[in-house]
Design brief:
mainly alpha, 15 helices, two-stranded antiparallel sheet
Length: 350
């Protein structure tokens, strides 16, 4: 029988055949490593750090790169890995769109959620309440307590002539021109921006109110000045027009307003009780020593007080004294007023 010829494989073919299992093994190792690294990265970006319960607050300054932001988040125990955060930001194309600001990170937020917050600029807002009758100084302290700006910077801007001119306020400060409300401000907002938002707009000072004031012989500044005094004297809204009437009746006969809040403003005592010496202070805002209105508002009145200043009650009262912490006794004559004062003092002694 004729034997078939045997064809010997070349040395190259032999090496290729013998190397195939090694390459398969190597690829298997690479795939396993890639899978392991992928799972590691997935865990880093989806798991949350073990920290104290509750949300966490962090401030991201402007002009930080993604790695610096990642390190800052890692240092605050907000993410598990700065590498995982940076890698995710790069993979999603968000590395250059992260926004500065102060953020509140919810409890349980993972790296995906944190990245979404920073990319969306969902910064933390601080509520700032300006109450009816609140002053610029009181507002400044509230803003400082929220960490938004220094109190003296707020007061300085509130008296800046150029700032006042830009807002078309013909006065020496924004006192009386700020609209009482609750505002929301983020860190980084300037004192100018905050006060500009709070300045009373023409939408509040309606043509009807301005017209009513003009019929009484007042301009807007005088209207706000009287309204601020009424606001600081009244507690219950129903007494606003009555207190307004008392002051209007005094103005008509050139009788001093004798309003304690104007002396508190003059002496810088805020809402503290006055002494006899305080009433003797020679100051343009002391309405015990000076007739007529003071030079400007002593606080920031609400709309009800402004309406009361423009529409006083039609009564002949010239005096009022506190009955309790909320209500007053109104009188037409000095004798009736003195009797009411005596009853008030006796009530306090009991």
């Amino acid at each position: 029988m004729m034997e078939r010829p045997r064809f010997l494989k070349s040395s190259a073919d032999a090496r290729s055949h013998s190397g195939r299992p090694f390459r398969q093994f190597a690829w298997g190792v690479v795939c396993l490593l890639a899978l392991f690294l992928g799972l590691q990265v997935w865990w880093l970006v989806t798991a949350t750090p073990t920290v104290a319960a509750g949300p966490r607050i962090i401030e991201i300054p402007a002009h930080l790169g993604v790695l610096d932001i990642a390190r800052r988040l890692d240092k605050a125990d907000i993410i598990r890995s700065p590498f995982g955060f940076a890698l995710l930001a790069l993979a999603q194309g968000k590395a250059r769109s992260l926004k500065a600001g102060e953020y509140e990170i919810p409890q349980g937020a993972n790296t995906f959620a944190v990245l979404s917050l920073l990319e969306g600029g969902k910064v933390l807002y601080h509520p700032v309440l300006l109450k009816e009758g609140g002053t610029l100084s009181e507002l400044a302290r509230t803003i400082e307590a929220e960490g938004l700006a220094r109190a003296d910077d707020i007061v300085r801007v509130g008296h800046d002539p150029l700032f006042l001119k830009a807002l078309e306020i013909s006065a020496t400060s924004v006192e009386g021109y700020l609209f009482p409300d609750t505002y929301q401000f983020a860190k980084g907002v300037t004192p100018e921006e905050m006060l500009s938002r709070m300045v009373m707009k023409r939408a509040q000072l309606t043509p009807e109110l301005i017209g009513a004031a003009r019929e009484l012989g007042f301009n807007v500044h005088q209207l706000l000045t009287l309204a601020s005094i009424i606001e600081r004297e009244a507690v219950v809204p129903s007494e606003l027009p009555l207190i307004s009437a008392v002051f209007w009746n005094r103005l008509k006969i050139d009788m001093p307003l004798q309003a304690d809040p104007t002396v508190q403003y003059a002496t810088g005592k805020g809402r503290q009780p006055l002494t006899r010496n305080d009433l003797l202070v020679d100051h343009p805002y002391n309405t015990y020593r000076r007739n007529g209105l003071p030079p400007g508002p002593i606080a920031n009145p609400g709309l009800l007080a402004i309406r009361a200043a423009a529409h006083p009650a039609r009564v002949n009262y010239l005096y009022f004294v506190a009955l309790d912490e909320r209500h007053h006794k109104f009188s037409q004559s000095l004798n009736d007023h003195n009797e009411a004062v005596a009853r008030y003092r006796m009530g306090k002694l009991r």
